Amino acid sequence: MVPLGFPAALFIEKSEKIMKIGLVLEGGANRGVFTAGAIDFLLEQGVKFDYVIGTSAGACNAMNYLAGQIGRGRDSMILTDKSLNYFGVKTLLKTGHFFDLDWAFKEYPQKYFIFDYDAYFRNPIQREFASTNCLTGEAVYFTDKGADKYYLMEIGKASSALPGMSAVVEIDGVPYADGGVADSIPVKRAFEMGCDKVVVIETRRKEFRMKLSKSTKMVARISGRKYPALEAAMLRRHENYNRTLDFIHEKEKEGTVLSIRPEMKEVSRTETDYHKLSKFYHHGYQQMKAAFPKLQAFMKE
Fold it and tell me: Which of 176, 180, 179, 182 lies closest to 134, judged by CA?
């Protein structure tokens, strides 16, 4: 209440909203090496966000970013020792699946590319990892459950379980598949979580548009025998993906999204060639480095 005889303007409380800035990381299996390069530059510069979300390979990169581990994403995707590869024909013959996610999320972090769980769990940044509920076909966004290391890697697996190439992952009795099926680039989720601005790291060039391929139709049909909702989600994925790209481009024009994306030809998601992967990694690093002044201005405005 304003006391009598005093100008009301003197009692107007000044409040400034603290801006919340998010980081969104697209998946794409080994195309994620581009993101690994961009992330490494951000870590070198000490750039911090208020919220981070990743899908599939983007979830793995998000974990490395939150743990502050420069080079871990690069080293685990650009293998010098091919015997450590977690996918391929040998894996298919051994496990029945093209991708062995147990190897990637158990052996990798514990034996070969040590994951700094302590640094990860100390990091206060809000985070989520996108997955797809096989029973509903809808996106689900997981986060940590205390400092549970096993659960963290399970939700990483759930975000990365590509239909037809790896086994579904059950969490609390519910089967989950790759988050890219329902939400490949979860930029809308970042805004729903209260972000005012969002930095997006994509793994495809700006002109890319997804099409429904014959292989997707085939895998969707096979998946649909057990999970009809997952089949439906796979068949509409390309439409959702392209709408998300349109949303990103619209928000870029508005100035609330800054997207870092490749300008060179992308590697395939199952690329294993050391030189091609190294080139794409360095491209990601250089793309982020070139955009850094713009990023600084974007985060300060």
Answer: 176
SS (H, E, C) 55-89: ECHHHHHHHHHHHCCCCHHHHHHCCCCHHHCCECH
DSSP state of 99: B
Q: pLDDT tens digit string along 1-41?
A: 434 443 444 333 434 568 899 999 999 999 999 999 999 99
Q: Which of 184, 220, 214, 217 is nearest to 201 (CA)?
A: 184
Residues ≥6 apart with Cβ < 8 Å to 219: 163, 164, 234
Plot region of 268 (φ>0 → left; ψ -120 to 50 → alpha; else → beta): beta
Q: What are phi and psi of 198, to 5 degrees?
A: -135, 130
∠ CA 249-265-290, rounded to 5°: 60
Compute the CA torsion angle 222, 28, 297, 69 (nearest 10 deg).
Answer: 120
Residue 283 CB partners (closer than 8 Å, separation 6+): 34, 37, 262, 263, 264
Residue partners of 301: CB distance under 8 A and separation at least 6: 255
What residues form DSSP beta bridges with 133?
176
CA–CA separation, 90 and 153 (whole Å): 23
Name the CA radius of gyration of the chain, rounded. Answer: 21
- Could you tell me which residues come within 8 angstroms of residue 250 by beta carbon, excluding any fewer than 6 positions away? none
Task: Provide the whole-model pTM.
Answer: 0.91
Per-residue pLDDT reduced to its tens digit, 121-139: 999 999 999 999 999 999 9
